[in-house]
Amino acid sequence: MTSYFSSGRARTSTLAMAVAAALLPAGAAEAAPRGSTTIDRPAPATAFWSVETYPGITREQALADNQPAVGGDSPLTPVGLGWEQDARLVGGEASAFDGASSYLSASPTTLDSAGTFSVAAWVRLTDASVSRDFVSKAGSRHATLSVGYDKASNRWQVRMPTKTGKGAKWSVARSTSAPRVGLWTHVAVVHDAAARTLTLWVDGVAEATKFRVTAVNHPAGEFRLGRGDATWWRGNLADVRVYDRTLVAQDFTGWRASDPGSGGFDEPGLLRPVQVGKWNFENAIPCYDESIDDPTLCSAPDSTAFDRQLYLTQGSYVDAGRQGSVLALDGTHWIDDPSDPHYGETTREYARSQANRGEPGNPVWADAPVLRTDQSFTLATWVRLDPSRGAQTVVSQDAAGGHALRLGWEPVDGGRWTLVVPADGAGAPGGAATEATAPAADADLWHHLVVVLDAAHRQVLLHVDGTLVRTVALDAAGQPRQATGSLVVGRVSTAAGPEGWLYGQVDDLGAYQGAMSSADVAALFVAQRV
Asked: 265-300, pLDDT tens digit by residue?
């Protein structure tokens, strides 16, 4: 049984809400304003906590309920909670639990474990030496809901008792996949009271369902994050949501306006990645001379809240292009005045990411990463290049001694796009690598390239012009690692030095923490194409 609305209460929506939802982190939805038109649309979460900070979101706001008008205000109360910098989003903090005493609590009315409900969260387990719960609902003698890691089976697990007192029997559902220490994983549980089923979802896949479930609720039992009755979570949590309905597949992947039950709206899914960088070069400033004291004169600003810039090296130009301004790299200084000392100067042009280590009004820019490359991530950009100049790099990720990723063009087989992820995470010569390629005979025309590293499924995916063209499993010896260097446009670092200079134009570079679905890649292509 699929229930979109609880207790017969339909949710409401407006176009403004749809726009607002698109600007929120993955899958977020606002409560409906009064006076809006009621339509058939999947009900939003009755409680939602980001449980992480990022620019514009404080720790206090991270623990506040983002849906107070939907299910009643249910803020989280911390007990010994810590915060870990850059745990999920570079430039943010994720809630950190010590595995011994730290947890978060909310009102008992947050969840009725005897009714139909769903609970979903991004979780990161950092110690698997004992069983650990990250969500529970307290009972009079034992929890009426426990979700977490089971040491004996080495699986994700959800448990619900038939009663709160002695003699309770337990409904238990365990995942088919084994948790991986240190990897961010999306875990959700769905209890359908009418169908008497309990389902465990892992990364958007229903991995286990228990039937003939008898559930119970303790009205005075607090809702808890980071602990069970006697188990304590060690790791991190983010983006925690409670629903008074069952979740279905589209809730994870995203609703399309054409889907039955969508109410005619596109809705972001719970697995949708968070955009952490966006450079369209509309306000970029070409670089005349890197020795100028003001580094913002050689930069392209980030239009996300993370506010990281791309630093442009000397000779890099900002030209009119696809839909506005584009980054133009051609190896020759852009100055066109023969009397200027830089006229006709040969240059090594590229751009690299930087973060502000100073105050907003007095910036101190330093080279810095944009992504957690040891987790799932997505890079998307438009490019056209000059094939006559040989092998070229569109975008790469600097790492110690080399690179952690390279997307480029090679003049073989009539031209091909090439994605390389070194197995050692540093691009050292001779190391095994994962490589995905696709034909690129007309690279002198604009193309949309999207790279997805899916750490959960250990694969890389290459999309060209909105279409998935290659999926390759990560090399068996490979392990995604965190690269502390900059995201780079226009060249790649190797043990022998930089190479693969780009001769062409780049536009609409986007960085996302998380694996973008092929459907969302196609939608992005349609939205951005001329």
From this structure: 678 889 999 999 999 999 999 999 987 677 678 999
Count of beta carbons in the 10 Å neighbourhood of residue 64: 17
Residues of the chain with pLDDT under 70: 1-40, 261-262, 265, 292, 295, 424-431, 478
Q: How far apart are CA 47 and CA 54, in angstroms?
A: 20
* pTM, rounded to two decimals: 0.90
CA angle, 42 then 106 then 28, to 5°: 30
Q: Identify each DSSP E strand in 61-203 by its residue range.
A: 77-79, 82-85, 93-98, 103-106, 117-125, 132-137, 145-150, 155-161, 170-174, 185-192, 197-202
As a whole number of angstroms, the distance between CA 296 and CA 300 comes to 8
Q: How many angstroms separate the Cα of 248 from the Cα of each of 192, 204, 252, 269? A: 11, 9, 7, 11
d(CA 507, CA 473): 29
Burial of residue 458 (number of CB atoms within 10 Å: 0-12, 13-18, 19+): middle
Within 13 Å, how many C-alpha atoms sit on residue 261's CB side? 13
Q: Which residues of 71-93 are buried (b: 16+ CB within 10 A; e: fewer)?
A: beebbbebeebebbeebbbbbbb
Distance from C-alpha of 52 to C-alpha of 89, rounded to nearest angstrom: 9
State the Cα–Cα distance between residues 257 and 496, nearest whole angstrom.
51
Q: For residue 6, give the 3-state DSSP assignment.
A: helix
Torsion over CA: 445, 329, 433, 522 (sign): negative
Q: Is 394 exposed, middle or buried (0-12, 13-18, 19+ CB in 10 A)?
A: buried
336 CB-near residues (< 8 Å, 6+ apart): 343
Q: Give yes or no for a contact between 156 and 179, defined as CB atoms under 8 angstroms apart.
A: yes
**CA gap 102, 241 in Å, rounded:** 20
What pLDDT does residue 20 have? 35
CA distances from 462 to 62, 162, 431, 469, 514 (A): 34, 48, 21, 6, 15
Pairing outcome for strands 132-137 and 223-225: antiparallel
For the record, the structure tokens of 239 come out as: 């983006």
| Integer Cα distance of 314 and 287 in angstroms | 5
DSSP 61: H
| Alpha-carbon dihedral 410, 451, 180, 53, rounded to 10 degrees | 140
Judged by phi (left if over 0) then psi (alpha if -120 to 50, else beta), residue 389 lies in alpha
∠ CA 382-383-385, rounded to 5°: 170
| Dihedral of alpha carbons 205, 209, 215, 218, sign | negative
In one-letter notation, the amino acid at residue 367 is: D
Q: Which two tokens stand for residue 221?
A: 């039992």
Token representation of residue 478: 């490979």
455 φ, ψ to 5°? -70, -30
